[in-house]
Amino acid sequence: MRVIDSHTEGEPTRVVLEGGPDLGNGPLDERRDRFAEEYDHVRRAVVLEPRGSDAVVGALLVPPTRPDCTSGVIFFNDAGYLGMCGHGSIGVAVTLAYLGRVALGEVLLETPVGVVAVTLTTPNEATVENVASHRTRRAVAVPVPGVGDVVGDVAWGGNWFFLVADPPAPLTLAHEPDLTRIAMAIRGALGDQGVTGSDGQPIDHIEFFGPPRDDDADSRNFVLCPGNAYDRSPCGTGTSAKLACLAADGALPPGRQWVQESVIGSRFTANYRIDDQGRVIPSITGRAWVCAEATLVFQPGDPFANGIR
Ligand code: PYC
Questions:
Q1: pTM of the predicted model, to two decimals?
Q2: CB atoms within 10 A of CB 299
Q3: Would the N or C end of the chain have less CB density within 10 A of its end CB?
Q4: Looking at 69, 85, 225, 245, which residue is catalytic?
Q5: Residue 197: closest CA among 139, 136, 240
Q6: Is the predicted pLDDT of residue 140 greater than 90, yes or no?
Q7: Three-class SS of residue 175?
Q8: How far, in Å, is the centroid of ligand 1 from the Cα of 126?
Q9: Whether the CB of 86 sits within 6 Å of ligand 1
Q10: Which domains can be identified in the chain, with CATH numbers?
């Protein structure tokens, strides 16, 4: 299996170029479901240790259904499958440019939750125009065992997020164990108390916000991903969910720049527009760098060929 690794503002993406499963030509959400049902061992083999880590997001390139799209892409991680992935879309576009498969300019990627436009402005910088994002619940108070009442918003940015404006610890790497532990407790409490996204979809990302470290940024965040790794980047879908909340509060007008720092200090620059249906369409700009080209080898008899669960 041939893969290319990159990182977007610190968060890794592993693009599967060759040797992935043939999922047919149906709609992308059906192909994602087929991936999960029939080929989940491939997901595990690509992203879990010993070949990967809990931070790696995989990106399986598949033929698009729409002729105007350059590629379809199904994102996955150590816990399962993602609807969309902002840092991953930037990583895919930079990888395709590195391979000479796309030029600078706009690339359309088809994902299970919709088409996203990624505009490469340099070989290492791109802007993702994400799927429409929205807040479904504001200021939900959730009693969290061992933590107390936590108040947050529920919003969709391509994945479901619970956004907490009052962080339980400083947003620094030194506090990552505490932030992770508390975010996991919040996610557990949301599940136990039936606080979900639309149609009962689980909220699998928890996002804390606080003041930025740099004067020219607007906010710093910490994002817990579904498998309990923290996002090294400011999280493209999480930043999109944040923009949807800011838009709903009237706290950020369309077109106004929002600079989101991650817990490691990397940043995305974002803004949104309102489309003709009145929806918030976020744009997220970040940088990615290719860091490895590899062939994943599967030797007979390897007890961990499909990853360490
Ligand atoms: O950038 O959207 C994102 C993302 C989701 C999970 C990890 N990164």
A1: 0.97
A2: 6
A3: C
A4: 85
A5: 136
A6: yes
A7: helix
A8: 15
A9: yes
A10: 2-129+290-295 (3.10.310.10), 134-274 (3.10.310.10)
